[in-house]
Design a protein that fits this description.
Length: about 600
Amino acid sequence: MKNSDVDNEIRIVVGLATCGISAGAKPVLSALAEEVEKRNLKNVQVVQTGCIGMCTYEPIVEVYVPGKEKVTYIYVDTKKAKRIFEEHILHGTVVSEYTIGATQSSSNSNTEEYLLLKDIQFYKKQKRVVLRNCGVIDPENINEYIAIDGYMALRKVLTKMTPEEVIKLMKDSGLRGRGGAGFPTGVKWSFAAPNKADQKYIICNADEGDPGAFMDRSVLEGDPHAVLEAMAIAGYAIGATKGFIYVRAEYPIAVHRLHIAIEQAKEMGLLGKNIFNSGFDFEIETRLGAGAFVCGEETALMQSIEGRRGMSKVKPPFPANKGLWGKPTVINNVETLANIPQIINNGPEWFRSFGTEKSPGTKVFALGGKITNTGLVEVPMGTTLREVIYDIGGGCPNGKEFKAVQTGGPSGGCLTKDHLDTPIDYENLSAVGSMMGSGGMIVMDEDNCMVDIARFFMDFIVDESCGKCTPCRLGTKRMLDILERITQGNGTMEDLEELESLANSVKESSLCGLGQTAPNPVLATLRYFKDEYLAHVVDKKCPAEHCKALLTYKINKDICTGCTLCSRKCPVNAIEGTVKNPHVINQELCIKCGNCYSVCKFGAVEKK
């Protein structure tokens, strides 16, 4: 992308996705814009952009100066923004101490010793396809999308390709659905194309409900036109003239930018009637979901769009034959669609040049949990878990030991350090008891209790089950009851047997994907962390010292100085004692919050 239409224009970009805004990026943008306006600088442009990827470093500001490498500033506040403007923008001197990878030992803040974004470990093994525009363009300015070949793919298919050729190209690319199931996109389109109907539909599934997942949100906030363009291409391929984007109402920024993008595309004739004078019409509307996790399942999603309660339906018939309002429908998720314009522009061979034979292309992950570098990561399929967690994510912080990683959200499984060299693709993750899912990747360290992790995800599933089928409605609740008993120290060996039996029954007999995959965290933790279950049941201990019911806090009287800090921080006044005398915890009052353990400066509070 060119920095600007004007060759000598300086461009200041501020990350204004949800992560940036929550970290305080809006005042930073305002401060920089005020400096430009105050000085009436015509050659300096301050713009917003989407997620740059390194969410842990927000607010992020990037400066593009013609003829020089882009400079990335991190943890920027209004005070830092003004200094950056004064020294870098006005005088051309990089404020290196604010940059990513700044040389901490340098005593001269004006030194040119700083790392470029492309050189830091976080980005070295990434390949940006879906995220190529996120953090680069202004998502609310269609001209910036067009400047980097935006809508050229749509123009190509409408003016130079038949629908059959488009479907063949998608089949040749090997693109598989990135929503979790991994079904070949071109094949899905080919099922809907031959069906005759007075109306067909394209649906973008943006109902991203996995805990810790924010891949689709970031694409919609940073590059909404890529999704709109892809939906129009899909519509042309199968003969649909209407599209819906089903997006969570909890994503207000994404919804706002989608509405702006749709209106801009309409104004420029890129959506609506007779697009590119081809005779092809295509309209897009948004539909807001109320946050039900089950509405990520395609039949429940369509029920919700139709104004019904979001509940799964038996298949067949499949949506390609009888979908929204009984018409042929294709449903693709955000990340799947974001790949399509580039595949059209660059060809299927280009897309197959990275990734694996069965899983071409890249995969976007929301890397979170006990990890040093939280953020948005895009890597070629076949990259190992070790590379993502250690080379990109920087490993677990504070010297803690890695214990597990959960892939696939609540429908996935927890994998151990023995699986770190597993290549990330659909087949390999399934083989070790997990799944790709939509792209959440939650890292856990030695302080996480795996029994409690299974309980957490099962609690989520119980809340989110639509209740239509008995195995999911009752089976998941029964599993949760057992897990809660175990974490409370009341579990038995019979509970472990029943838990595994129930998990397999629910997996085999539930109606939809939510119920069929709901037991995965339980089965995976039973498989790889059976010793932790046995410790809870037999020894009545939590090896991670996490489960409150199995913990006791005591004060070592030989170490306690009587400083009273623990007593003052106790929310229930359970700690008794006088100044400069050893204190005692009243076990009947103690709620095991751990405040005393956290604040004691002398190590007198012991957790057992």
